[in-house]
Amino acid sequence: MSIRVIVADDQEIVRTGLVMILNAQPDIEVIGEAADGRRAVELARRLRPDVCLFDIRMPSVDGIQATRSLAGPGVEDPLAVVVITTFDLDEYVYAALRAGARGFLLKDAGTALLSQAVHAAANGDALIAPSVTARLLGAFARSGPAEPAIRPVEELTEREEQILVTVARGRTNSEIADELYISLSTVKSHITSLMAKLGVRNRVEIAIWAYETNRVRNG
């Protein structure tokens, strides 16, 4: 079964390029395009894609609002949203992640990383581009979150603290397993436990929590 994707970007040349790249993948199919956030939300609600790929700055309804409408807190049966943007728009990325985005990429990320992000989102995971994780989330951590970070329902174990940091730095499960000399299934188990203790839904929110509590700092 192909991963069904909707692409929304107000720049036609960018949108066309993304569609071409995704459709060239053997197991990804773009089923809808939109030039603004309002149309993107309408398409997503009607077509129920596996993944929505949204630019942040769009007319009518921007990518943050569109993400919140489809994946935000309180949304029943939320859709997977990946935000794609430029580094110049980094102040919006943090807000998009808090709105429920399952990952983010820069527009120069390349075909391989774009495909990985779509696959990760479709599988219920999240991809934070390692090359920009510290710069983006660390910058916002220094400026301080809008609200104090929620305390975990249970104290984190030493191993969970280690995995928390690696997730925040953009490591994949396989990379974490290699780095900490543990099995892949153990990594997945710890990440599930982290989400439960922190009351978050995915790896992106784990990473945000790590930066907000100064577990990881920029640089």
From TrEMBL:
Domain HTH luxR-type: 149-214
Keyword NADP: no
Record PTM 4-aspartylphosphate, positions in chain: 55
Keywords: DNA-binding, Phosphoprotein, Transcription, Transcription regulation
Protein name: DNA-binding response regulator
Response regulatory domain mapped to chain residues: 4-122
InterPro entries documented for this protein: CheY-like_superfamily, NreC/VraR/RcsB-like_REC, Sig_transdc_resp-reg_C-effctor, Sig_transdc_resp-reg_receiver, Tscrpt_reg_LuxR_C, WalR-like
Gene Ontology MF term list: DNA binding
Organism of this sequence: Acrocarpospora pleiomorpha
CDD domains (UniProt xref): LuxR_C_like (cd06170), REC_NarL-like (cd17535)
Superkingdom of source: Bacteria
GO biological-process terms attached to the record: phosphorelay signal transduction system; regulation of DNA-templated transcription
Family matches, as PANTHER family: TRANSCRIPTIONAL REGULATORY PROTEIN NARL-RELATED (PTHR43214:SF24), TWO-COMPONENT RESPONSE REGULATOR (PTHR43214)
